[in-house]
Amino acid sequence: LAWIGWRRGAGRRGVGWLEMLRVVIAAALAVTLNQPEWREIFEPDQRPVLAVLHDVSGSMETEDVPVEKTAKASHQASPPTTTGAGRAQSRAAAAAPLVKPEFWASLAQRMDVMVEPFSSAETPPEEATDLSLPLRWAREKHPTLAAVVLISDGDRNSGEPPAAEAIRLRLAKVPVIAVAVGSETWLPDVELSRFEVPAFAVAGKPLRVPFAIESSLPRDETVTAEMEVVETGEILPVTVTVPAMGRAESSILWHPEAAGEVTLKLRVPAVEGEINTANNQLEAPLDVRKEQLRVLVVESFPRWEYRYLRNALERDPGVEVNTLLFHPGVEGLGEGRGYLKALPDEAELTKYDVVFLGDVGVAADQLTAAQAETLFKLVRDQATGLVFLPGLRGHEATLWETPLAELLPVVWDAAQPRGYGSLTQGKAVLTEAGRASLLTKLDDDEEESARIWANLPGFQWYAPALRAKAGSEVLAMHGTVSNGFGRVPLIVTKTFGAGKILFMGMDGAWRWRRGVEDRYHYRFWGQVVRWMAYQRNMARGEKLRLFYAPDRPRSGAAVTLQANVMSLSGEPLVDGVVVAQITAPTGKITSLRLAPAGEEAWGLFTAAFTPELPGSYEVRLSSADAGEELVTTLTVQGVGKERRGQPARPEVLAEIAQLTRGSLLRGVQPSAILQAARQLPEPEPIERRLLLWCHPLWVGLLIVLLAVFWIGRKAVGAF
């Protein structure tokens, strides 16, 4: 086409140069469409790095690696530390040869081998395992990372899932050679998994300490657990049969005689074939106190239930009783030792641990609506226990128009406010919850306690309760009478706000004295008072009171701190600054500011924290508005994140290896590990590509040539 154009232009020189420029531009465009590049190849100027990451967390101390197999496989490295012929060694000991520099000496000519331990970023670090953290460290620390050798049992319990970091390594073409150490099956082991020592005990009162034993043995095992009082040397044994691959729960009864700080130690002897005996012992501190609980009994008429209840509480040396007896329709109130002339005011009511509300209602000569609301706030915010003791006069029916209706744990039959009476005695039957509850224990043995309940004298009146409300727990129900909802509930418990509530729907507990005097009657009401007052007395001062839920905290579970704070004038503090400093067993200090429990909170402040480790936590509660500081110890039960004796988890390591296109080696196989490292490809050279076809200079050159061609055409046409 250029030739034809030149001939048509009469062969002029200018036209010839113009047509030659046309050919050059067309050729440049053709080259551009083929996307030319300038490629440069550079050999790496840094040696590749092989990162050997070995797990040093607590689970690696599990002894489940056979010594003989490791010794045979470790012919290229120094032999591991043995624990005896035919025995097992720890996972850390089995992996020890792989972390020695001489083991990787054969790879020194090809790459730099960096051996680094890992566990977690927590405190202490060895009590948790984070598999994502070492992979990220290796990727960020070594720009020329060629591969990773990950030596672990796969037991991860902290940090982010390692899959995300494994995908990043895959994008960077860094394979992971995972070495799974440890047995995938349970070791023969008997473990003390639970030892629930309460916050405090009362001198002279029985203390029941529950515990649990778990077994991974293939057979039932009968063991004798022993609880030792370290300070006195007193030992209390109990025999427990632990099912094969199961769990057994039991308890030990102890009668502390003197007040003071003691340490309880529970241990289980090693059984035949057991490998790990480190988890056969637990211990916890206990504060034994001389108690003085304050109880308020409010009643209308001196019925038999009231008389015997008051006598039982007055004869309890750990209880101080005040009584308000109204005598409706009769001028004057009940008088005598401990009797009150009126219901105490709000500030004075906060000093009572338990309030018994008998056959009393809202009336001109009984309680007022304002007093009922005060009792409601007392339970909700001050953790005071409330016992409903309805009677055949039906005065309590008037309370259901007040806030106290929300506290009642049963649905009341408004059509029969005075309840039901009968000439024949009814019987209370314990539910499953009642048989297990410490509240209804009338004997230390559970079976004997159930037998005693079956033989107790009956009752001839019961309250008009239709059913238990949601969130309540029925401990006893009528043995024979039912309604449309099932058996009539008689003893029902409930928690509301910070307090506890008990509904006693039968007027016959005083009959339990027949033939045995105060044996069962005294024990039952004594247990009720102490059960309800337990939280309020966990830790208390003049103007500060601290309690928490659950009362037996476990590591890894949230604990709710609740504090009752009184102002300098003695009134419940509504708004103020309340701070708790919590010192963990590791020495780490955490500060929490407790907030009011609600807009209508009556001196109640709350906050939550999660203890990560078992042990003793010091809690220092302070408030400038109260002018007082309270220091107590919170004992957290449970085991740490790193549990010795658990099976290895090679499936976690297999996922990492698969995502990075690496390999998984089960067990310490030195020759196989070295072979996998030698088969790693040589590092690829660095290639740089300069894209000429889209380079700004190339584009500019094309524009310039086109501009010259256009101008040339005009110039040739002008001449």
Number of strands: 37
Number of separate helices: 15
Give Rg in angstroms: 40 Å
Strand order in the sheet with the most strands: 17-16-18-19-27-26-25-22
Strand content: 25-35%
Described by the principal axes of the CA atoms, the overall outline is elongated
- What is the averaged pLDDT score? 87
Overall structural class, as computed from helix and strand content, comes to: alpha+beta
Sketch the major β-sheet: 8 strands, mixed
The end-to-end span amounts to 22 Å
Which stretches are poorly predicted, pLDDT < 50 over at least 5 residues? 69-86
Helix content: 10-25%
Describe the 3D structure.
The chain has 719 residues and is α+β, with helices and mostly antiparallel strands. The strands form nine sheets. The chain has an eight-stranded mixed sheet with strand order 17-16-18-19-27-26-25-22. Strands 28-29-30-33-32-31-34-35 form an eight-stranded antiparallel sheet, with no helix packed on it.
Provide the descriptors you would attach to this structure in a database record.
elongated, 8-stranded mixed sheet, alpha+beta, 719 residues, 8-stranded antiparallel sheet, single chain
Task: Provide a concise account of the structure shown.
The protein is an alpha+beta fold and 719 residues long. 22% of the residues lie in helices and 33% in strands.
Map the helices and strands.
Elements: H1 2-8, H2 13-33, E1 37-42, E2 49-55, E3 63-66, H3 67-73, E4 88-90, H4 91-95, E5 112-118, H5 132-141, E6 145-152, H6 162-171, E7 176-180, E8 190-195, E9 200-202, E10 207-215, E11 221-229, E12 234-242, E13 247-254, E14 260-267, E15 281-289, E16 293-299, H7 304-314, E17 319-325, H8 346-349, E18 354-357, H9 369-382, E19 385-388, E20 410-412, E21 420-426, E22 428-430, H10 432-436, H11 446-455, E23 459-462, E24 465-468, E25 473-483, E26 486-496, E27 499-504, H12 519-533, E28 539-540, E29 544-549, E30 559-565, E31 578-583, E32 589-596, E33 604-609, E34 615-623, E35 628-636, H13 650-659, E36 663-666, H14 670-678, E37 686-691, H15 696-718
Parallel strand pairs: 2-5, 2-6, 6-7, 7-36, 9-15, 16-17, 16-18, 18-19, 19-27
Antiparallel strand pairs: 1-37, 3-4, 8-10, 10-13, 11-12, 11-14, 14-15, 20-24, 21-23, 22-25, 25-26, 26-27, 28-29, 29-30, 30-33, 31-32, 31-34, 32-33, 34-35
